């Protein structure tokens, strides 16, 4: 007698963010049988990405490049070529990564735009999952500080040395920033939404400040998980507790949309971090369990710390193991804990 076929659901996970934290989580998720979608910020105006953006007015490709490499199944040498950054004495190409130039060229060909360019490049690089720029047009990050002043540009905001009160995004041509329908569909169909780890104001919130993205994250039935940073960040989250990170996220979207928070409680060894190499990171984020629960979210605290190269990072393997455990528990399972 033939066994009946069982349609096994392959969990859908959408990871939203930017910076160096996103590839860490994506590399871990690749080890599991899950459907991965990465939604990547497009509001970066620094480094090679910023220079390319200024010259040819395309979405900054740096974060997209790193995510493509994290999810690619091509041989390692191809990844190394894609990531190669020209040395400073190569004046014409100084500081540019080859992958940034390739992404910019593809987006310019036939005026296809960054979104379609990344989809084509995803096929060429044999991407395991989906990589979606949060917007098809370049966005500018804006901030208002607690002294009432405002600034535009991610790099300028981080360097201002002021307390950020609110951020929002605008487009260069005054079009209303919107994500492609594929991004919204992925969020609405997801089983789990993962935010971070990454810079709160310049990597995570720029995505959520795109109207239809923020709305979809609030309306989705998926569990929304925030991976809180281990260290506070100069010019962004100085003196922040983990609860203050969540409070800022909820305030920007006008409701308590974070379901679960992953926080590291393992102490960073004193004098371990190279303060010159990692000069943007200040102190370990303080743990505020009661403050987190006041935000209506479930708290998972554990040792998610990885020490490497005199720097402090998330242990991607441990974080992803926790994400997998959460996938087996519906939102209703822990809702009673908050009552």
Automatic annotation (TrEMBL):
Keyword terms, alphabetized: Cytoplasm
Subcellular location: Cytoplasm
Major location category of this protein: cytoplasm
Organism domain of life: Bacteria
Membrane-spanning parts: none
InterPro entries: CofD, CofD-like_dom_sf, Gluconeogen_factor
Gene3D superfamilies (alphabetical): CofD-like domains
Coiled-coil intervals, chain numbering: none
Function statement: Required for morphogenesis under gluconeogenic growth conditions.
Family of the protein in this entry: Belongs to the gluconeogenesis factor family.
NCBIfam families, per the entry: CofD_related
Name this protein carries in UniProt: Putative gluconeogenesis factor
Organism from which the protein derives: Ligilactobacillus animalis
């Amino acid at each position: 007698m033939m066994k009946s076929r069982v349609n096994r659901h392959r969990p859908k996970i959408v990871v939203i963010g930017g910076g160096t934290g996103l590839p860490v989580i994506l590399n871990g998720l690749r080890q599991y049988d899950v459907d991965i979608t990465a939604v990547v910020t497009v509001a970066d105006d620094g480094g090679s990405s910023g220079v390319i953006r200024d010259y040819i007015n395309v979405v900054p490709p740096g974060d997209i490049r790193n995510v493509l490499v994290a999810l690619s199944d091509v041989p390692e040498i191809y990844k190394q070529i894609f990531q190669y950054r020209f040395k400073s004495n190569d004046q014409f190409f100084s500081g540019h990564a080859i992958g940034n130039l390739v992404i910019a060229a593809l987006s310019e060909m036939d005026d296809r735009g960054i979104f379609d360019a990344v989809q084509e490049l995803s096929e060429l690089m044999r991407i395991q999952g989906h990589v979606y720029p949060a917007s098809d047009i370049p966005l500018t990050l804006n901030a208002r500080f607690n002294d009432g002043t405002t600034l535009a540009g991610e790099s300028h905001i981080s360097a201002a040395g002021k307390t950020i009160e609110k951020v929002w995004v605008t487009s260069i041509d005054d079009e209303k920033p919107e994500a492609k329908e594929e991004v919204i569909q992925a969020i609405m169909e997801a089983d789990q939404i993962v935010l971070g780890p990454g810079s709160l104001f310049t990597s995570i919130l720029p995505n959520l400040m795109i109207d239809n993205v923020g709305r979809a994250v609030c309306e989705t039935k998926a569990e929304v998980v925030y991976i809180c940073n281990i260290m506070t960040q100069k010019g962004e989250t100085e003196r922040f507790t983990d609860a203050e990170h969540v409070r800022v996220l909820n305030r920007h979207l006008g409701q308590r949309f974070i379901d679960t928070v992953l926080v590291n409680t393992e102490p960073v060894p004193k004098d371990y971090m190279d303060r010159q190499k990692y000069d943007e990171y200040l102190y370990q984020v303080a743990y505020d369990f009661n403050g987190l629960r006041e935000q209506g979210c479930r708290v998972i605290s554990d040792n998610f710390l990885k020490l490497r190269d005199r720097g402090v990072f998330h242990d991607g393997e441990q974080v992803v193991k926790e994400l997998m455990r959460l996938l087996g528990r519906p939102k209703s399972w822990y809702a009673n804990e908050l009552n």
